[in-house]
Design brief:
With 430 residues, the chain is an alpha+beta fold. It is built from 15 helices and 10 strands. It folds into 3 domains: 101 residues, Serine Threonine Protein Phosphatase 5, Tetratricopeptide repeat; 135 residues, Alpha Horseshoe (Serine Threonine Protein Phosphatase 5, Tetratricopeptide repeat); 139 residues, Jelly Rolls (Sandwich). A hairpin with a 5-residue loop joins β6 and β7.
Length: 430
Amino acid sequence: MSGEQAGIRIALQNRVRRLCFLIPCLLLTSAYLGLVTKQSVAAYFAKSSDPSDLQRAVRLEPGNAEYHDKLGQYLSLIQNSPELALPSYRAAVALNPHQAHYWFDLANDYQSLEDTERQTEAMQRAISADPTTPELAWEAANQYLVQGNTQKALHEFRVVIENDPYLPASALQMCWRVQPDVDLLLRDVVPPTVIAYSSFLELLTTKGENAAAAKVWSRIVELRQPFPASRVFEYIRYLIGQREVHQAQLVWQQAAAISGLASYQPSAENLVVNGDFSLEVLNGGFDWLYSQPKGVALALDPTQTHYGSRSLLIVFEGPGVSESGIRQLIPVQPSSAYDFSASFKAEDIQGAGGPQFTIQDAYSEHTFYASDDLKDADFWKPVDGNFATGPETKLLALRILRVPAASAIRGKLWISSIRLAPHKQQGNGS
């Protein structure tokens, strides 16, 4: 064989090899492009709200569970044909049995068909596929409620409360509606967390369930975890509105350890909290409460002190003043004697009369004590007195009122060293 013939033969062999390589590549590329094109077209049809397009998507991609589920949703929810939707939902769960929402869609369809047994089976499969997602647990709980299965519904509501920081209030409201038993809910439904207990406490107070709320508060204390002081203030404000003064006292005392309120506790020697204003004013609970009435300004003044590190400055600067805007609620015993004392300074107090310390029954507003006018004192001047509470009195309101009320007044007043305690002779048993 000549060299020329050998060269021709080698060239032919190389061409054959190239063709043998290129043809399979072209076939694979064509198949891939066809597959991608089919998937793209199916995805395009699946976005449509036209049932014929959804059916095209299913035909193009019969192994896609999502397309079967979408077609089922259209047939069931839009066309209101649960019988026609059933095969699509069944196909979806058969193709992907690990997707919980496919099972829930199937369960909803069985519910529309009034097939309770298969609905329950589908819900159980959904919960098994995804036992902790709160949105799915919420749906399962509501389906169980429709069936009248309260026990399973409560179990799913617990999943919601445990796993969603935003839904506990709604879930607890549903639970209380179907099972208004605080002991059962605390045992089986409400997880022992600050968020859950706080939401439950708020729900019970809005419904006026005082005894149940007290049980929830006890659980909060038992947690021994930090609890927001603002929530304590809300609960005490509610209890005072309900005239549950003893429970409000207990809450304030127990909140000392869990809400950073240890420094704000009364003592046997002084029932007034923060009487020298050395602590920040909380505007809540049994510390000082304040507002901003027209013509009055309040401030803590470190430049004017008595025994503490600062005093409360009250600036009167307008007509029509009735009160200073500062007060404190003080739990006391009925038919008991008390001693009151304080110190004050005044500067340029102008107007008829003047401001006065007043102590009243917080509910009846009966006045037990009113000081002389707090004026004409450029040095720290003491003020004191004693009084006895009424047979029904359990909460006092200590205020600084303008007397005569609603008349013009100008000037500055500093107060400090405020004290209220059981009368000394009463303590000695005489």
